[in-house]
């Protein structure tokens, strides 16, 4: 029976939905994590009687045909790039993006990666790096004797040497925008790569041309709404149960047919 496969496709779709929701909930405390949402499309339709054809005898037009759906499929899992909560840390090298944009990171293979996770540190050479030691593209090295570091909302990095009053400039943090943020390639550890779907990175100064400003001593939290996720989880569970009921009912109907005697 067609309904067996339709019900099974619904169960598979809701299983994917639960997996996406569970990943959101698991990352509710992940720095700069972006919520995901599963999107579903209906499958092809089988035309038993096509709308608009002529009836055989009276030569009239059929106003509504018979199209039998074949189930559902997962079309995409979108990222929802809304602003996460800003969390004060008090650490000079913690930087949050307040608005759109991504930091540029030099990956181990020399290519550019992108992240909104601004939990930076200094390495042995005084370079600003991520938690994995990947260099933040833009600012230069900060001397070990620097006693204070300031990062402006526009991305200018300054430091003050011990015993001196004047501030020295270490460089400029630039951020990038993408036409289609949802099309970026997530590779884990809060990093993203450019893809054909995302378009090329558009580099610029924070706070200009739609880019968000930088906020020193803050980190961006996850944008996951736990209440919404729990509600979606309950809805997905009920949908899974209803699709499983379709499979059970179809099986019972097939069993009834198989017991019929001529």
TrEMBL record:
| GO term, biological process aspect, one | bacterial-type flagellum-dependent swarming motility
What's in the keyword line of the UniProt record?
Bacterial flagellum, Cell projection, Cilium, Flagellum
Residue limits of the Flagellar basal body rod protein N-terminal domain?
4-34
Q: Where is the Flagellar basal-body/hook protein C-terminal domain?
A: 216-260
One GO term of the cellular component aspect?
A: bacterial-type flagellum basal body, distal rod
User: Which PROSITE patterns does this entry report, sorted A to Z?
Assistant: FLAGELLA_BB_ROD
Has the keyword Transcription regulation been applied to this entry?
A: no
Subcellular localization, as worded in the UniProt entry: Bacterial flagellum basal body
> Keyword Hydrolase on this protein?
no
Q: How does it assemble?
A: The basal body constitutes a major portion of the flagellar organelle and consists of four rings (L,P,S, and M) mounted on a central rod. The rod consists of about 26 subunits of FlgG in the distal portion, and FlgB, FlgC and FlgF are thought to build up the proximal portion of the rod with about 6 subunits each.
Family per UniProt?
Answer: Belongs to the flagella basal body rod proteins family.
Q: PANTHER family under this entry?
A: FLAGELLAR BASAL-BODY ROD PROTEIN FLGG, FLAGELLAR PROTEIN
By what name is this protein known? Flagellar basal-body rod protein FlgG
Protein's organism: Phaeovibrio sulfidiphilus
Write the lineage as a comma-separated list: Bacteria, Pseudomonadati, Pseudomonadota, Alphaproteobacteria, Rhodospirillales
- What gene is this protein a product of? flgG
């Amino acid at each position: 029976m067609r309904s067996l496969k339709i019900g099974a496709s619904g169960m598979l779709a809701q299983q994917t939905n639960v997996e996406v929701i569970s990943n959101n909930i698991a990352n509710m405390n992940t720095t700069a994590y972006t919520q995901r949402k599963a999107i579903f499309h209906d499958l092809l339709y089988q035309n038993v009687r096509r709308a608009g054809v002529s009836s055989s005898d009276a030569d009239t037009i059929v106003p509504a045909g018979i199209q039998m759906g074949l189930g559902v499929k997962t079309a995409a899992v979108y990222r929802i790039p809304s602003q996460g909560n800003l969390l004060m840390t008090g650490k000079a090298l913690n930087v949050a993006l307040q608005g759109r944009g991504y930091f540029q990171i030099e990956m181990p293979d020399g290519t550019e990666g992108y992240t909104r996770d601004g939990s930076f540190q200094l390495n042995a050479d005084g370079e600003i790096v991520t938690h994995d030691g990947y260099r933040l593209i833009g600012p230069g090295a900060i001397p070990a004797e620097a006693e204070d570091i300031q990062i402006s909302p526009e991305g200018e990095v300054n430091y003050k040497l011990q015993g001196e009053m004047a501030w020295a400039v270490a460089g400029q943090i630039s951020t990038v925008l993408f036409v289609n943020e949802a099309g970026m390639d997530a590779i884990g550890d809060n990093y993203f790569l450019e893809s054909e779907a995302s378009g090329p990175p558009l580099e610029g100064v924070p706070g200009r041309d739609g880019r968000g400003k930088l906020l020193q001593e803050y980190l961006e939290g996850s944008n996951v709404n736990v209440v919404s996720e729990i509600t979606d989880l309950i809805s997905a569970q009920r949908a899974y149960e209803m699709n499983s009921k379709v499979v059970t009912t179809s099986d019972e109907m097939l069993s009834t047919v198989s017991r019929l005697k001529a």
